[in-house]
Amino acid sequence: MSRFFGETAVPGEFAPVRFRPACAEDAERIALLHADSWRRHYRGAYADSFLDGDVEADRSAVWSARFAGPANSVTVVAESGDRLVGFVHVVLDEDPIWGSLVDNLHIAHDQRRTGHGTYLLGCASRAVAERATGNGMYLWVLKQNTAAQQFYRANGATCAEAALVPPPGGDPTRLKGTPSCLRMAWTDVATPRG
């Protein structure tokens, strides 16, 4: 799997970005970026009290657990110097029908539209092609997050269905109302353009 990691140059003011497999030492930085992304893009679906309160602790616990007992999953980070600028986490063979789940794909706010998300999505699809038993891949995106939906469609996904957002950590007080999400799917991992 290491053949798709490396360094890429980004035009403009940004330093080159290195993509590599994540390790336990990355858990806290991933959790902080994850929490920041939720605060920016999940407001209106998640309760303000959760986003403004213990979301960092929640994400830290989740990522520490993921690295303490890694399941059949792959996490790739994108770094610019010492700074984490993005990550993707895919759970291989998560669903017998839909295939592998891209459980998280987040890019630092000032690094959006630099190509890092596309590259990380490509890392996920290549991990699925190399390590999963099936070649399908999917993710859930908030219905209100139209920019992310456009990104996934531009990378070959189709909207397969809608569902209610499950509450983070199983706690319904962390939701605001009954938000919806959409299943974006690739029937073949060769479809993403990353």
Structure, explained:
The chain is α+β, with helices and mostly antiparallel strands. It has a domain of 133 residues: Gcn5-related N-acetyltransferase (GNAT) (Aminopeptidase, 3-Layer(aba) Sandwich), CATH 3.40.630.30. The protein is 30% helix and 30% strand. It has five helices and eight strands. The chain has an eight-stranded mixed beta sheet, with helices on both faces. A hairpin with a 3-residue loop joins strand 4 and strand 5. It is globular and about 40 Å long. The two termini are 15 Å apart. The model has no long low-confidence stretch (mean pLDDT 89).
Short description:
It is built from five helices and eight strands. The chain is α+β, with helices and mostly antiparallel strands and 194 residues long.
What attributes characterize this protein structure?
GNAT family N-acetyltransferase, single chain, 8 strands, acyltransferase, Aminopeptidase, 194 residues, eight-stranded mixed β-sheet, alpha+beta, Bact_Acetyltransf, 5 helices
